[in-house]
Specification:
The protein has 5 helices and 4 strands. With 94 residues, the chain is an alpha+beta fold.
Length: 94
């Protein structure tokens, strides 16, 4: 049901927020900054599958968010740089 009313990018944003809540750790050692590192080694295909979106949709959304400095990606690692922006993309309030 939720799938019909949300875009693929929205579902992907919500997935990243959920993963950060469950498997994230603060980027700063003291935990004071907003940045969260998702420590699960997921491929873009796995992220797409979990968010129920096409891989192309996930790839496009992640590239867009990288350009806008909302996330940073490395090899099987995602850092949420701007959690507030990601929550807005997900249609959620922070």
């Amino acid at each position: 049901h939720a799938q019909a009313t949300t875009s693929g990018a929205q579902r992907l944003a919500r997935l990243l927020i959920t993963l950060a809540d469950r498997h994230g750790r603060p980027l700063d050692a003291d935990g004071t900054g907003p940045e969260m590192v998702i420590t699960l080694p997921l491929t873009q295909q796995e992220l797409a599958d979990l968010a129920l979106v096409a891989r192309a949709t996930a790839t496009r959304a992640l590239a867009d968010w990288r350009k806008r400095n909302i996330i940073q990606t490395g090899h099987r690692r995602i850092t949420i740089v701007d959690p507030a922006a990601l929550h807005r993309l997900a249609g959620l309030e922070l």
